[in-house]
Amino acid sequence: MRVTLEQQLAGAVDADLTAVFGAIALAAREIERKIRLAGLSDTYGAVGATNVQGEQQQKLDVFANDVMMDELGKLNCVAALVSEEDEEPVICDHPGSKYIVIFDPLDGSSNIDVNVNVGTIFSIQEFAGGDLSAAILQPGTKQVAAGYVVYGPSCVMVMTTGDGVSGFTLDDTGEFVRSSEKMMMPQQGPYYSTNEANASTWPDAYRGYLKMLLAGELNGKTYSSRYIGSLVADFHRTLLKGGVFLYPPTAKVPNGKLRLLYEANPMAMVAEQAGGAAVNGPTRIMELQPEKIHQRTPLIVGSKAEVEALQEAVAQE
Ligand code: AHM
Ligand code: MG
Fold first, then answer.
1. How far does residue 231's CA lie from ligand 1's centre (Å)?
2. For ligand 1, is residue 257 a contact (CB within 6 Å)?
3. Based on the domain organization, do 154 and 89 belong to the same domain?
4. Would the pTM count as exceeding 0.70?
């Protein structure tokens, strides 16, 4: 049976949340098209500016951010939009608005120019009124929905509204059509995924953990390495095949590289809904209290067996 994203959401969540997903789907469709044809237009490369993270903004970063802002900003139910690309939240002056949408419009910037998977990551929180700035800084357990779109050989949206994980594939008519239901991550998997070039500056516990995986000491399982450098793609593989993705603290980024609100939290919600886990080392990602919108965190996410083993290794240090 052909079930679109909208059809799955209708009746399962309120009309406003369905509208938020509709806007993300529309934006994703535009971003997918721009990426697919990027080589035929002057779309690759940097714009010459740096974003709030001090990173070079790519033309496609700016395009993706504008499209997400435009589509979501049209909705009366949206109270605020928080983007990796903008220093401050965009406050939408809509009376009675109900949702805060936090996103990384185009993740995996280093892969944009080389025709390798990139993605859009999103986290949706409810806004019950009151102080909007305080409402944005909620732990991940308060997310009402989360997900990502991976622009790969297929364009796929993976999402959860807190009742399991579903995948939708963008079809030729421009609709996201359900292609996976009740997605579950294997309890232990065959891959570890990390930028091993940084391993010499990881804390000892992480180096010991990797040694343990390589020695086949976690339930006798042997591992292969897979790393793309796009969180969406590395996470998507981890979700489907199992194993672990890790971005530990390094000498260069002692608090981790990835951002809590729009990278770690949404991936953590999807992972947990699929039977996996996500920690920052000692602590569950979704229990961290954010202090700043662009806060970074170490991220270890994946199958339960690998994530729990890492948590133990860190606790013993
Ligand atoms: P970005 O938001 O600037 O694209 O950075 C985030 C990306 C993630 O997609 C990926 O997991 C990580 O950076 C890769 O970092 P590194 O190149 O240090 O391995
Ligand atoms: Mg990013």
1. 6
2. yes
3. yes
4. yes
